[in-house]
Amino acid sequence: MAKNEHTFDSICNDIKAKKFSPIYLLMGEEPYFIDRITDLLIENVLDESERDFNQTILYGADTDAATIFNAARRFPMMAERQLIIVREAQLIRDIETLANYVKHPLLSTVLVVNYKYKTIDRRKSLATTSDKIGVLFESKKIPDNRMPAFITSFLQTRATTIDAKGTQMLADFLGNDLGRLCKELDKLAILLPDTAPKRITPELIEQNIGISKEYNNFELLKAIAMKDVLKANRIIQYFEKNPKENSIQNTLSLVFNYFSNLLICHYSADRSETGLMNTLGFRYSIQVKDYLLGMKAYSAMKVFNLIGNIRTADAHSKGVEKASMTDADIMKELLYKILH
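The structure assignment produced for this chain is given below.
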């Protein structure tokens, strides 16, 4: 059984408070959190004057467990600690034998192992011992449907706000690529005034990232919820002219998610705004507005049938049965079934 369930925030807070563990085994599909924790350790474990003699960076392609073991057993020079960072540790063939060091680590060493894009078997000694002695952290990809909440939370840590439309525009366009997202947010932050309040608007996103504030998936779902046939078709036509910025797979995924949630709403015991927020796990009332509209516009049976239609459209988009149809044709056919 794991000693602790370390979260990204708890790890970062401990590092900032100078509470260091002798081992950080950072693994998983999402490199952003691994890189952020590692950068934070570089900033906090050693003073700049101590780094020349006490900071070592090794790379998995050029090292092995024995080399890491020997480096970690050295004592720091004129400093309280030494910091050893192992990048690309997933390339080390005998990494499991590093458990021999982790069982009896040198407390003056902070060993950071970056095992990216994969996970180490939690049943084996390296993972279980790292969890017991230090920090074992799995960096997971954030699901697409949780990206708007992540964007809002991320900006709050920087004393910046953004509305639901802005978060959805960014989530639709950038997906769950956190590295790219943070670069774009940094770019937008430079354009904001130094004085509070700081707010990222859809207009700022449109002008500097190239996403239309009128023709995007956020507005498409809103048009579908309101059964606004003209607006929905205009958005699909815009998507047809700008296919690189508007992937059919992304649009289908969001439409599928909307109607799946709408079906849940129809069968929810409490269909009030607060009740649906709790059922869907939403934090803000604005997030449930389109579902309240959708419940009036689409019966439960209609929603059930549309979910089947969306699955068929997804198959068509992947070349099943109607390979000759363009993405625009597929979306137009689906939109007709939805709105009529």
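Interim note for the steering committee: Strands lie at 23-28, 55-59, 82-87, 109-116, 135-138, 160-162, 198-200. The mean pLDDT is 90.
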